[in-house]
Amino acid sequence: MAKAARRPTPGKKPRLISVAMIARNEAGNLPRAVESAKRFSDEIIVVDTGSTDDTAQVADGLGCKVHRFPWSHDFAAARNFSFSKCRCDYIFWQDPDEEVPEDDAERLREYARQSLLLEPGQICDEFVFATFLNGTYRPAEKDLPGYGPGFVVMKPRMVRRGRLFWQHRIHEDLYSKHSIVRHTDDRVRVFNFGDANQTDKEYYHALMYLSHKDHPAEPHYLLYLAEHAQVAMMNPFKAMFYLEQIKPEALALGDQVEKYWLFVGRTWKMQAVMLFDRG
Fold first, then answer.
1. pLDDT tens digits, residue range 105-158?
2. Following DSSP, what letter does each residue of 108-177 receive, concatenated?
């Protein structure tokens, strides 16, 4: 049974928000990410998953609490380890290539503070905020001044410690065994400046196949495999094989549903062209 959240003690510095990051060879990105996190956090946890650069030293020099975790090809395991090292009432997870704008930081912190003043059954367990993903290797659906093409995904970003945990080795997500209280606000923004080089893509693709093997009915993995079959392999027949296994109502609202119907349409067109060409 989860412990009730602590009420803030008057005159005592609150332990309100921990920021949890997992990092590998992120020495160049960490200063910007940590500067952003310091705007709203009371502690910053950096878990080094096997860096060959000076990620750990940079994190330590920036005042973060640094821990090491042997990489096991499982993002959820690393994130759960980072959560286990947090000591504040709320945990905000952040990647080293992300930042929260200064204008949004105070609103984020105020949400956590106000939530803890509520009665136990009303305290928020999960805050869903807007993540802006850049369009370097994603469909350019939205162009933001000073940021570039990208699209917005509503993601759970700040959770009450001990109430939610991570699952799935890649494209990991949060789950809870309890009924939880959730709040959504797209005015709190997280900007992601990351990109995946070709080596990363090959590695992530291998992990995705393993994840699909572990969870063959998970629609998120099926959608990814359909995309890969259509775009990388130019095989619309295999793409349709995966798409036909997906129930659209099981997808996350927003971009995943749009992507699903986009791929269904493209796959039918590709199939028609190929079948016509074959006569």
1. 999 999 999 999 999 999 999 999 998 876 544 444 555 555 555 677 888 999
2. HHHHHHHHTTS-GGGS-SEEEEEEEEESSSS---EEETTTEEEEEEEEEEEEETTT-EEESSSS-EEE-S
